[in-house]
Every structure is written in structure tokens, then in C-alpha cells.
Design brief:
Blueprint: E1 8-9, E2 13-21, H1 23-28, E3 39-45, H2 65-71, H3 73-77, E4 90-97, E5 103-105, H4 109-112, E6 122-129, E7 135-139, H5 145-154, E8 161-164, E9 171-174, E10 180-182, E11 186-193, E12 199-202, H6 218-224, E13 244-247, E14 252-258, E15 263-264, E16 273-283, E17 289-290, E18 295-298, E19 305-317
Antiparallel strand pairs: 1-18, 2-3, 3-4, 4-11, 5-12, 6-9, 6-11, 7-8, 7-10, 13-14, 14-19, 15-19, 16-17, 16-18, 16-19
Length: about 325
């Protein structure tokens, strides 16, 4: 059995954040650094220069995602991906928000270069949430650029943002230009473009990890915010099977509910997918069992996975260029 017929699982990269917690220890039994620090992000699949995923187990152990992408792209990932550049196009994380994140925005493609950043579109899936926790997404009806600017001066930007109280299993698409913030009390799977550009417009007047106010990017944010984006709701699944929870040029994500004994392969056998196990368990052809909170790449032509306990799975693919 070749290395490319089995799932590729990576070492998590844990990121300290002022708003983070340690839920990954209690919910997924992860071995966080024993330093008492707060970890807001676990980068599960990352091809960033300074945050490089490395293979955790198997014949490919120790190789980086960037090495696999650039030396074995056709073999592991499939055909039709050459135009996507020298970095794996997705960045996939778990977010643990003990307290509120900053109110922020990501630059759209047409402005990113001008503003010195990278475009960033993402999707959030609610894996766990405390009662009454809120997401802030889009603007309240009636908000204008002028009223928002006044709120900046008054320190009341949070009153301009639209609040949503979601439940476990909900998801929402965050297009570039959409004002947003994650409130305290969430565990979220974030699937996004490979970008790390965030413009903070309001940070609840708090101090950073260094004891100083965190930098804000008001001018850049005001250039990016979509001031016609009023009061969105959590997304509804679409498509013929009502499985699709996100469909954009950068990723296509299906939420699958699979019974014990079901098989799971790539939607297109000659193209890879990313598997996120939300609940239940699955097993690969070599007998390795995967548990909730596991993220891995299922290579092109991989042997099918077997569901060993009723499972909820997110399956992400790169859409074909149309």
C-alpha cells in the first residue's frame, strides 16, 4: 500500500492569542504546551512561510505541506492545479475564543495588493458554543459609512455590527469585505484562502499580550468594509442533496452525515479532498482510526475510508476553474 493511498495527517501548529483558551485539551484531548498560556488557534493544514505543516505519521512523516505541493502535486493532489501557484491554496484552523475577537475585515482581491495584504475569504463551522454566545457578522440595518465613522470616534463600533446567536452545526460564509468578529465561547472550524491578512477596526479597548493596545487598521478597514452587507443569517445547506454549506471560487464544502459501514472517497477520484471529522469515527485502509477534531488530506486515488461510528464530516475540495 503506497503512502499516497492513505490519508495525510499533519502536526497541529498552536498559536497564542489574547482571546484564546485551552478547550482543545478538554474537548479533543490535545496535548497543548504545558505553560498555562492561552491558545486561540490551531493551524491544522498550513502552507505559510513561518507556519509550515509537517506530516505527522506514515511514510511521508516529516515532510512539509509545501514540499508535497511542489514536488508531488499531480501524484498527491491531482490534475488541473498547476495554475494555483507554489503555495497550497487553503489554510484550515480550529479557533478557540474564550473572549471576543476584534471586529475586523479582510481585503477583497481588487484591493489587497494596494493595501499591502492578501485577499481572504473564509467559512466558519460551529463545532461547539456556549449558551448565548454571539457572532458579529455584517452591519445592522441603517448603518452608513458616516454613522460607522462616528462610532469609531465614540468607541461604540460594536453597536453597529449585526449580532447572531448560532447553534452547534451552523455555518456561515465570510466573504472578503464582510465586517465580522467571533464572540467569546466558541470552538470554530475555519476553512479559508491561504492568507493571513486581517485589518482590525475595533478591539474592545483592550491590551495585547505585551500589555499595550493592539494596532488597529482603521483606514484600511474603511476601504474594505462592504457597507451594503446588512444583517446576514447563518447559511442554509444547498445543492441537490442539501449537503453544500459553502460554494465559492476558492473552496467547495459539503457536510456529510454518514451511517456506520458507509464508505467515503474523493468526490472526484483524480482530485484530492480535505476531510474534517466533526463527530463519530472513521478508519482508513491500513486500520488507522480517526477521531473528532482530526483534519487530513485524502490524496487523489486514495483507498476509501470506512465509517466505524455514525459520523458528521466536512469534505472540502478546490473547485475546478470554469
Amino acid at each position: 500500500m503506497s503512502a499516497t493511498s492513505l490519508p495525510i495527517l499533519f502536526q497541529a501548529i498552536y498559536q497564542e492569542r489574547i482571546w484564546g483558551g485551552r478547550k482543545l485539551e478538554t474537548i479533543y484531548h490535545r496535548n497543548l504546551p504545558n505553560d498555562g498560556n492561552l491558545y486561540g488557534e490551531s493551524w491544522e493544514i498550513s502552507d505559510r512561510e513561518c507556519e509550515q505543516s509537517t506530516v505527522k505519521i506514515g511514510e511521508l512523516k516529516g515532510q512539509t505541506l509545501n514540499e508535497l505541493w511542489n514536488t508531488s502535486r499531480h501524484e498527491i493532489f491531482g490534475e488541473g492545479l498547476d495554475e494555483l501557484g507554489d503555495r497550497f491554496p487553503l489554510l484550515i484552523k480550529i479557533l478557540d475564543s474564550r473572549t471576543d475577537l476584534s471586529i475586523q475585515v479582510h481585503p477583497p482581491e481588487e484591493l489587497a495588493d494596494e493595501l499591502g495584504g492578501e485577499p481572504k475569504t473564509e467559512m466558519w463551522y460551529i463545532a461547539d458554543v456556549e449558551p448565548e454566545s454571539k457572532l458579529y457578522v455584517g452591519l445592522k440595518k441603517g448603518v452608513t459609512k458616516e454613522s460607522f465613522e462616528q462610532a469609531l470616534a465614540d468607541g461604540t463600533v460594536d453597536q453597529q455590527a449585526h449580532a447572531i446567536t448560532p447553534k452547534v452545526g451552523d455555518s456561515i460564509f465570510i466573504d472578503s469585505g464582510r465586517l465580522h468578529a467571533i464572540g467569546g465561547g466558541f470552538l470554530i472550524y475555519e476553512i479559508q484562502q491561504n492568507s493571513d491578512t486581517t485589518f482590525r477596526v475595533f478591539d474592545w479597548n483592550r491590551m495585547g499580550l505585551d500589555g499595550k493596545p493592539r494596532d488597529l487598521h482603521v483606514e484600511q478597514s474603511m476601504s474594505c468594509i462592504d457597507f451594503k452587507d446588512f444583517e446576514p443569517s447563518m447559511d442554509e445547506a444547498t445543492g441537490p442533496q442539501k449537503n453544500c454549506i459553502s460554494d465559492c471560487p476558492y473552496f467547495y464544502i459539503e457536510k456529510l452525515q454518514l451511517k456506520r459501514g458507509a464508505s467515503l472517497g474523493n468526490p472526484q477520484p483524480e482530485r484530492f479532498s480535505v476531510i474534517t471529522l466533526v463527530s463519530g469515527s472513521i478508519c482508513d485502509a491500513a486500520g488507522t482510526r480517526y477521531k473528532p477534531g482530526d483534519f487530513f488530506i485524502l490524496p487523489r486515488g486514495a483507498e476509501p475510508l470506512t465509517v466505524t461510528a455514525e459520523a458528521t464530516i466536512l469534505q472540502t475540495v478546490i473547485p475546478e476553474v470554469k
